[in-house]
Amino acid sequence: MTIFSKFKIAALAAGIAFTVALPAAQADEQYFPLQSYRVGPYAAGGTGFFGGFIDYLNLINTRDGGVNGVKLTWSEAETQYEVERGVEAYERLKSNPNVAAWNPLSVGIAYAMIDRITADKVPLITINHGRTDSTDGRVFPYVFPLLLNPYSETSGIVNYIAGKEGGLENLKGKKIVVLYHGSPYGKETIPIYELLAQKYGFELQQIEVPHPGNEQQSQWLTIRRAKPDYVVLRGWGVMNPVALKTAAKTGFPVDHIIGNVWSNSEEDAIPAGEAAKGYTAITTQASGAEYPVVKEIVKTLYDAGKGNLEDKNRIGSVYHNLGIVNGILNVEAIRIAQEKFGKRTLTGDEVRWGFEHLQLDPARVEALGAKGLFHSINVTWDNHEGNGYVTFQQWDGKKWNVVSDWIAPDWALLRPIIEKSSEAYAAEKGIKLRTAEDAETATN
Amino acid sequence: MSDFDWLFFIEVLVGGLLSGVMYSLVAIGFVLIYKTSGVLNFAQGAMLLFAALTFVSLTERGVPFALAFAITFAIMVVIGIAIERTVLRPLTNKPPITLFMATLGLSYVIEGAAQLIWGTQVHGLDLGIEDLPFDVGGVFISQFDIFAAVVAAGMVAALSAFFRYTRIGLGFRAVADDQFAALAIGLRLPWIWATVWAAAGLVALVAGLLWGARVGVQFSLSLIVLKALPVLVLGGFDSILGAIVGGLLIGATEKLAEVYIGEYFGGGIEGWFAYVVALAFLLVRPSGLFGQKLVERV
């Protein structure tokens, strides 16, 4: 770590927005305000994700000269994953011109921003997280839980377990425990697990772990007594390695623990040591540095000393690759919007239009150098998740290895539940449902 | 009652007691500082994080275990002395709340420094003790927890011997008893404070290694203090024995509560239940089980 980078972290810790690429009010620039977290309890995830995101933006600038000549710029403000700091960062950064989209990677900050970004008409990207009903673009025009919302994640996990048992019909009579983080994020999937248990006939027990989750003895003794066939780990931060260690301590087989999308990183497995060997977790993007786009980032940026990660060993890690995929989705949304509105700096609403037409099939994903990194996405004006596919990876003690095909969640089953929730939200807030026609126009 | 699973009850109880030992380890660091200077050192959690992060960063760079332990201990001693010189000494005779706020600020400084120096990555820590269960008559007991309990017992014995049989220990007890009387007979208060902060650094290092091996060496180690506070309220802020007994009581109570009555509150109650017990106890016995009763002449 250089003195400069240490100073950068210190400055970020002090809450100083650190401009990496100048967001000056110039033509042909598109600006990303980044509410990052590089210090504090969740810094490991924050440095990986924002590192990957910035690496991809930097690659586009360095290799392609921007998106059709439009340079990408960004600056960071430290949030330490705290909601009030995130909102403060939003207030500070929003005055910069040419804002493309917000990407806070925080459920709490995202929730706090929904009304604000809707008034601003700028997209809010909550890749793999956020409120499930924001999938419904009729009610949430500017919110995009890209690739995977919590309900799809639940369905994907249940489908994976069914696959291991030889089919959905074999879930009948099985017992699944969901061990969830004691927070709104952790509790988000309680009703959908209940619904799926009812539909497929498996027995369900949902057990809460109080935040932060560094003590789980009683929960795992309860699990041992319940003798479930599988435990789904819906954790966050320190809760994940502690769950794996306590499972080993109480004799529960690790290969019957399935982690959710925020329990799937190296940071979750490494601290658990031997206890994590054989642990399986869901993901929307594979880890590893063998994908062409990751190789290109290494060649173009890291070999030239321009990479964002301090530790090169983290290249291709789960959070780094998630950041890269997030970069691809943001950049492609801009590219698609430029096809309609012109190859120039776009307004936030025009970028929203781009996200609502973000359709990347496997062939396009391959052309972007991301074949195998993620499957595809098909966002429409009313489906802001975009039907992302999931895969499962298993920890071998050193790295994750993909152990399943790409699996589709049961979107048809989930959609009516999502619509019911979003329509209730619309009624509560007095929001008029958008139509396809409304979505086609964009403020310039 | 005939259906009551006693074996499971014993398992929960034993698990809780062993978890309580881990809380006691953190609480002892608080007690050492409080006893001599009357300061509730909120930075103890940050010191624990700093010690564990320093140790694991050194071992990952190829430094042998014993040497890494010695270097980290030396660093903790230096930090302890620096805190005494730069923070506590200038604030001598200031109200306790001022000193508490100073340690609160200190905790942020130490946390920030830890991440600045050693980075933000999460580390695994293997002390060579497997965290696997062994079966005692149908009750699963963790090898690692037994090891932690033995270490805690050893540390309490060593600290007790140090403070009972050495000159510094005698001075420590004199200061704990009456600071002004200790000064009047010529004891060097700063020297004793520095020694105590160094001892608290050692406790932070040992607790940091055990907690780090259990949950990984990461930022949330500094949140472990939240587990120690109800232990201190229950056991008394100035009693090492109180920290041990308080830890055992809190550990056992919170685990039994979570398992047996948690479902009536929607689960996940152990985080706050420990504080309910501590608060209830505070109403009955404000100085804790073993804490000194404060008598002030007015």
From TrEMBL, chain A:
SUPFAM superfamilies: Periplasmic binding protein-like I (SSF53822). Residues 38-397 form the Leucine-binding protein domain. Pfam families: Peripla_BP_6. InterPro entries: Leu-bd (IPR028081), Peripla_BP_I (IPR028082). It comes from the Bacteria. The keyword Signal applies. Keywords: Signal. Residues 1-27 form the signal peptide. Belongs to the leucine-binding protein family. This is Branched-chain amino acid transport system substrate-binding protein. It comes from Rhizobium herbae.
TrEMBL record, chain B:
It is found in: Cell membrane. It is a multi-pass membrane protein. Its main location: membrane. InterPro entries: ABC_transp_permease, BCAA_transport_permease. The chain crosses the membrane at residues 6-32, 39-59, 65-83, 95-118, 138-163, 191-211, 231-252, 264-284. The keyword Cell membrane applies. Keywords: Amino-acid transport, Cell membrane, Membrane, Transmembrane, Transmembrane helix, Transport. The keyword Translocase does not apply. It holds the Pfam family BPD_transp_2. PANTHER family: ABC TRANSPORTER PERMEASE PROTEIN, BRANCHED-CHAIN AMINO ACID TRANSPORT SYSTEM PERMEASE PROTEIN LIVH. Belongs to the binding-protein-dependent transport system permease family. LivHM subfamily. This is Branched-chain amino acid transport system permease protein. It comes from Rhizobium herbae.
